[in-house]
Specification:
The complex is a heterodimer. Chain A is mostly beta strands. Helix content of chain A is about 0%, strand content about 50%. Classes of the chains: A mainly beta, B mainly beta. Chains A and B meet through strand 5, strand 6 and strand 11 of A and strand 5, strand 9 and strand 10 of B.
Chain lengths: ~120, ~110
């Protein structure tokens, strides 16, 4: 079974609008971490935001926030006030267990296109 | 701030040749990971090292091997290259006890096998 599911292959949004990228996960671990990465066309993988399974508050980093609904096993990324430079592939990823040496498992990604 | 350094950025090899990819993790990071990302695919975990010892193994072909050296840099060796090995290869590093700081990825090595 897929551990990370991103159901939106592509999303379109106009500049300055907010957009939500969906991510659901599957794990039986009590301790885990959820990550969002941005991959522009140049290829590098850029870390955006992290949510720990025990964090009670939703993570926020500037224009990025993570809507964490533990009971639903969802970790949606919200980008407020989209910019043209936000056009990229976005990956949701999960680390199972507490240790930082656990590997990351990625979803299939969502391609976001921001139009003027 | 220092980032994860990968070399080379681009590599073109012929079928059946060998390739060596290098990764220099962030200083003091104790764990290194290698990922392979095929065209239009999500990154797939290959192998990881913790304190220079192999710690986990993913879908790494037997034709590939990797090691981490005393200075913590890591090399991914790929032999008998096939067309299907064409991909973006990422190295990432992390600090074991600071998982919330994320896994920092290098810019990747784009390998093209012709």
């Amino acid at each position: 079974a897929q551990k990370i599911t991103q159901t939106q292959p592509g999303m379109f949004v106009q500049e300055k609008e907010a957009v939500t990228l969906d991510c659901t996960y599957d794990t039986s671990d009590q301790s885990y971490g959820l990550f969002w990465y941005k991959q522009p066309s140049s290829g590098e993988m850029i870390f955006l935001i992290y949510q720990g399974s025990y964090d009670e508050q939703n993570a926020t980093e500037g224009r990025y926030s993570l809507n964490f609904q533990k009971a639903r096993k969802s970790a949606n990324l919200v980008i407020s006030a989209s910019q043209l430079g936000d056009s990229a592939m976005y990956f949701c990823a999960m680390r199972e267990g507490y240790s930082g040496y656990s590997t990351l498992t990625f979803g299939k990604g969502t391609m976001l296109l921001v139009s003027p | 701030a220092a980032g994860v350094i990968q070399s080379p950025r681009h590599l073109i090899k012929e079928k059946r040749e060998t390739a060596t990819l290098k990764c220099y993790p962030i200083p003091r990071h104790d764990t290194v990971y290698w990922y392979q990302q095929g065209p239009g695919q999500d990154p797939q975990f290959l192998i990881s090292f913790y304190e220079k010892m192999q710690s986990d193994k993913g879908s790494i072909p037997d034709r590939f091997s990797a090691q981490q050296f005393s200075d913590y840099h890591s090399e991914l060796n790929m032999s008998s290259l096939e067309l299907g090995d064409s991909a973006l290869y990422f190295c990432a590093s992390s600090l074991r006890d600071k998982a919330s700081y994320g896994y920092t990825f290098g810019s990747g090595t784009r390998l093209t096998v012709v």
